[in-house]
Amino acid sequence: MKKIIALLLVTILSVTTLSACGIGKKNEPVTLTVYSQLANYNGEMIGWFAQVMLEKFNVKMILIGDGDGIYETRMEAGDLGDIVVWGNDGEQYINAIKQGLLFDWDDDNLLADYGPYILEHMPAALQKNRGISERETGAGTLYGFGNNVAVNSLNHEDFFYSWDLRWDLYRDLGYPSMRNLAEFADVLEMMRDINPYDVNDNPVYAASMWPDWDGNMVMYVVSTATAYYGYEGFHLGLYDPESGDFYPTLMEGGPYLTILEWYNDLFRRGLIDPDSMTQVYPTMFAKVQNGGTLFSIFDYSGSMGFNSPENIEQDKIMLSYAPDEASPLTYGMNIYGSNRIWSIGAKTQYPELCMEILNWFATPEGRLTIDYGPKGITWDYDEDGYTYFTELGKLTNTDRNTEMFNGYSGKFGDGAFQINNLTWSAMAENPDSNGDLYNKDFWKMNQKEPRNAAEADWREFTGAYSSYNYLTSRKFSVSPSTSYSEGVRNAELRSTWEQVTKAIRDYSWRAIYAPTKEEYQKIVDELIIVANEYGYDDCINWSLNEVTIRKALEAEVRAAQ
To answer: Which of 189, 186, 195, 193 is nearest to 168 (CA)?
Structure first.
């Protein structure tokens, strides 16, 4: 009788699972809503990644990005979506927990039964997530895990702030001195003078920015300060992880206002794309692809767009090269995961299916598919276990406009993974390979000769083989990874914070576009007055308290190393 009952339970479970997850071949595809605060895309996912999801899970995905009022509307409706991705693990995430809008991963053994890879391989990341709930509600409930999880904490991540520069133009100028930001601006102006137009005869600028990723401050200004000083944007200021010093946003002579003034100087030289204040990321990226920019703080708005086969063939290339005094920040490997959370909405009808998908994202195949395309189509393992690109993969990796084939349709870039969050760090070791990392630049099979004469010249000049090799050969800062998560501001401070940060963003953009140095200073002075009237000091005091918490956690990490 026990055997019969056990068999019946297994049968019922199997049928229920197929029904709930929509995996059965005869079932109609299940449509899942993915609300991602990190996405730059809205609508049904298309192309090769959508086909992968349909093949593996019989799922279609509707992606909802985080525009104005989206979070508030979905919270009020009491339904965040099936899969929910958070930009950070702070106030909005915690409010969703408190209002019961996220699915408990322990409920009915959801994680154990449908997320076994996550459960086995990400224990510290899961424990950190429990800790957030424990601190805020006392329950210690599990609702997800953070992005960029590392296998160990002994090393640091690849460089997020890569200082991509048009090396072919810098070479043609004869490698002029680039000791500091002032000399860097002069070099950019010289580069523009010898290369004033892109392939479409549009003006070339030193930099093209976009505002839709701005947070407490203007993102590109903060990021440039991080790339130059090694200080990390932290609440309402910049934080030096090596000394523990904190520099408030509006501190006179501080890093934020120094970099803001530098961008105004570039603007007054005609070196800032005038569309920067209004354009979105894809618009900026198209300009990069056409050769409309000379440098970028990030590779994803620099070399990833510019280094196409056509430009490489013409001996053009963007490569890492920073001013001598720059000390770009990189991040310590983090077994706890970062603060961008993968979670599941409490109202989903398909929690098992959502968990299966997240579990697959965390497997080596899922992680590599997210970045590089379908296994066996664009990448695979050789007989010795080394990761390699197929012939199609070599094309899609260098040109996102490459048309897919072998059962997949559309351009690679159009069908790419759009949720904009990762599971494992790119610098984590892939356990299914023969020691390769997830980062393609470190695959044994991917070590290759210079792509053109300009890259060969860069290697000879810098003595480096790769961007990572170059940036680790010079001074840089490391932000140690801890279990820190942002505290919650009370209702009064939330209102104050919104007013102050909006003023900082709005006035900062106005300051960048100031036509004279005098007008720039007038705008900054007005910003300081307005921010103080709104309650800037209260925001700084709260930030300083968070600094104290973070410093204590970093001290624990350093003591354990």
So the answer is: 195
- Residue 21's pLDDT is 45
Q: Are 294 and 207 in contact (CB under 8 A)?
A: yes
First to last CA, the chain: 56
DSSP state of 276: T
For residues 318 and 166, the answer to whether their CB atoms sit within 8 Å is yes
Q: What is the DSSP secondary structure assignment for residue 293, as one 8-state letter?
A: B
- CA 216, 218, 220, 221 dihedral sign is negative
Contact 173, 191 (CB under 8 A): yes
Q: Count of alpha carbons within 13 Å of 503, Cβ hemisphere only?
A: 24
- Strand-pair partners of 424: 149
Q: Based on the number of CB atoms within 10 Å of its own CB, is 394 exposed (0-12), middle (13-18) or buried (19 or more)? A: middle
d(CA 153, CA 561): 9
**How far, CA to CA in Å, does 88 sit from each of 84, 132, 145, 236?**
12, 12, 11, 15
To which H or E segment does residue 359 belong? Answer: helix 351-362
Q: Which amino acid is at 365?
A: E
Q: What is the pLDDT of residue 560?
A: 66
Query: 437-478: per-residue pLDDT in tens?
Result: 999 989 989 878 899 999 999 999 999 988 988 998 999 999
Cα 292 to Cα 283: distance, rounded to the nearest angstrom: 11
Say which amino acid occupies 174.
G
Q: pLDDT at position 557, please?
A: 79
Cα–Cα dist 167/312, whole Å: 12
pLDDT score of 549: 95
Q: What is the pLDDT of residue 558?
A: 79
Check residue 301 and give its pLDDT: 94
Which residues, 6+ apart, have CB-to-CB distance to 551 below 8 Å?
A: 244
- Cβ atoms of 344 and 491 within 8 Å: the answer is no
CA-closest candidate to residue 222, choices 315, 160, 302, 291: 160
Give me the pLDDT at residue 24, please.
41
CA nearest 328: which of 156, 184, 163, 154? 163
Residue 490, C-beta contacts closer than 8 angstroms, at least 6 positions apart: none
Beta strand 246-248 pairing with 164-166: unpaired
Residues 6+ apart with CB under 8 A from 207: 220, 263, 266, 271, 272, 273, 276, 293, 294, 295, 296
Below-50 pLDDT ranges, the chain: 1-25
CA dist., res. 511 & res. 262, Å (int) = 11
DSSP 414-478: TTS--S---SB-TTSB-TTSSS-BSSGGG-GGG----SSHHHHHHHHHH--SSHHHHHHTS--EE
Phi, psi of 43 (to 5 degrees): 120, -175
Rounded Cα–Cα distance for residues 115 and 146 (Å): 15
β-bridge pairing 341-344 and 83-85: antiparallel
Cβ proximity of 82 and 350 under 8 Å:
yes
Q: Helix count (H) and strand count (E) of the chain?
A: 22, 16
